[in-house]
Write a structure and sequence with these properties.
Blueprint lengths: L1 H16 L6 E2 L5 E2 L11 H18 L3 H22 L31 H27 L1
Antiparallel strand pairs: 1-2
Length: 145
């Protein structure tokens, strides 16, 4: 059962990371690219698309597809929400219905810029998200004890 738990955790991590697939530009030979980052893959439409795909795939092999649909939605949505809170340029949350960018930055001192490079970008964004998510997780954990 422990092995199953680790598989589920890995699956959740992969799903939560999926919106950043737009960092890699296929047109440039699958290299790191800032041009299209925080585009359509950081939207509620993408969340719905991924949860639908997961539901169909899981539904073929298992009966509990509703749980996996909810789990996949939460995983992808958590990434979108975290980026919404730390991204200065905003996200197209309602894509494909709208390309308007919504900005809800928390005012953290870290900023993103193309000059940072990929490793610095990942470290800084992970630090921001750890601070925000860590606080939320501590509150939830204390209430559950």
């Amino acid at each position: 059962q422990l092995r199953q738990g680790w598989r589920s955790l890995l699956f959740c991590i992969l799903l939560a990371s999926l919106p950043d697939i737009d960092l890699f530009s296929i047109s440039s030979g699958i290299r790191f690219s800032w041009e299209n980052h925080h585009g359509p893959t950081h939207s509620l439409g993408f969340v719905l698309l991924i949860s639908l795909i997961v539901s169909i795939i899981v539904g073929i092999f298992r009966e509990n597809w509703k749980k996996w649909c909810l789990l996949s939605s939460l995983c992808v949505c958590s990434h979108v929400l975290m980026d919404l809170l730390v991204t200065k340029n905003g996200l197209m949350i309602f894509y494909p219905l709208s390309t308007h960018r919504i900005i809800m930055t928390t005012g953290f001192p870290f900023g993103y810029s193309p000059e940072m490079g990929f490793v610095s970008f990942v470290v800084m964004s992970a630090a921001q998200e750890l601070v925000i998510l860590g606080g939320i997780l501590i509150i939830v954990w204390r209430r559950m004890r």
